[in-house]
Write a structure and sequence with these properties.
The complex is a heterodimer. Chain A is mainly β. Chain A is about 0% helix and about 50% strand. Chain A has strands at about 5, 10-15, 20-25, 30-35, 45-50, 55, 65-70, 75-80, 90-95, 105, 110-114. Chain B contains no helices and eleven strands. Classes of the chains: A mainly beta, B mainly beta. At the A-B interface, strand 4, strand 5 and strand 10 of A face strand 4, strand 9 and strand 10 of B.
Amino acid sequence: EPEVTQTPSHQVTQMGQEVILRCVPISNHLYFYWYRQILGQKVEFLVSFYNNEISEKSEIFDDQFSVERPDGSNFTLKIRSTKLEDSAMYFCASSEDSPGDTQYFGPGTRLTVL
Amino acid sequence: ILNVEQSPQSLHVQEGDSTNFTCSFPSSNFYALHWYRWETAKSPEALFVMTLNGDEKKKGRISATLNTKEGYSYLYIKGSQPEDSATYLCAFKGYGGATNKLIFGTGTLLAVQP
């Protein structure tokens, strides 16, 4: 069964460093998302991406963050200058082609900022 | 601010017990309610997408109901097994705009003792 994959599974970085989290969505899906869960809190939406552009972003998704689909398979989240409060589990998701479709999630990347 | 709540926060049952938990969500601008099952270190697994008031869906021993007028959904597990131990997440999708974002509840952590 097709699945969303994410790399790395765990990333440790120093405050102020840039990180890139990578995702390979399901191949025929058209909508891509990033969510995150800070320990002990709810899973929260960051950004959605469709047709090679951001379709929606949350207040959290400020200039520090960017997303890219550099080729036909990868979808990346870049955090430019990491802060301690960026430590969280970051999930990538994808869905097929309509707003009500199931969003399929990857296993997440745990980001630890020291 | 849209709020999605789940109760209880955690639940401990014996193998063979049937159990249920609740998700409450805004009753206005409802589009869909998603249920996920999430085991640690794995991808959240999509269980159901529910859209119509009165919907009932079933997958094996797990079923869910939906009441959009009063803003709640129940998830039922019949004859719980140790492999059902996981966090069960519900997520609300509102209607309108170019948004597919899901708004998650806090989750219910289920532990099934053999």
